[in-house]
Amino acid sequence: MADSAEGVVAPVESSYASAQEPAPPDYFRGAARNLVPGIAMLLAAAAAFGMNLTHVFFAEAIAWVFMIWGALLVLVSLLDTYQVFEVTDDGLHLRNYLRFWNGGKVWGWAEISRLEVVVGNKDRRPQDATLRVFYTAPGELAFQREDRAFDAQLAQAIIERAGLKPTAKDNPQDLAQLNVERGAVYTWQ
C-alpha cells in the first residue's frame, strides 16, 4: 500500500484558470534617502534648547527654524523612501502609507499621456536622472505629475503598458544603457 500512495499525481491545469489570472504586480520602491541633514538640524535645535542658549529672541527663533526644517527634511526623505509604484494589468498604482492625506492613486494606462527621463547638469550616473510620469484624468485638462529617481525597469514597463512612443529619434531604445548627456530630456508620448 505504501508503494501506491507514493505515486505521482499530476496537477490538473485548467485553461480557464490560467487565462483569467492576472499577472502578478511588479513593485518598485522609492530610493533610500539621506536622513542625516534633517536629524542634524533636529539635534542642533534640541541642543540649543537643552543648553539654554535661547534666552535671546533671535537665537530662539533660529532654534525653532532648525527644528521645523529638520522635521520637514526627515519627513520628505521618509516620504520618498516609502513611495511604492505598483505596475499591474489595470494601471499604475502609486502608494505611500506615510502620506496620510492621500494614501494612494490609481492611474489607468490609457490616461498616462507622457513619460520623461530628465538628466540634469550634475547627473553623472543613470540612477541620478529623474523619471517623470504625467497623467491626465478623464474629462480634465490639467496634468498630474509624479517624479521619482530613474529606474530603467519601471520606465520600460510604463512605456510598454501605456503604449507610449518616443518623440525624438535620439531616445534610447534600451533604458538600461541610458546615455547620461548633461541637460538631456528623453520624452515618450
- Total helical elements: 5
* Approximate helicity band: 25-40%
What's the alpha carbon Rg, rounded to whole Å? 24 Å
Q: How confident is the prediction overall: mean pLDDT?
A: 84
Q: Based on CA inertia axes, which overall geometry fits?
A: elongated
Give the percentage of residues in beta strands.
Answer: 15-25%
DSSP strand count: 8
Quick structural summary:
By secondary structure, this protein is α+β, with helices and mostly antiparallel strands.
Summarize the structure in words:
The chain contains five helices and eight strands; from the N terminus they run ααβααββββββαβ. It is of the alpha+beta class and 189 residues long. Strand 6 and strand 7 form a beta hairpin. Helix 3 runs antiparallel to helix 4. It is elongated, with a radius of gyration of 24 Å.
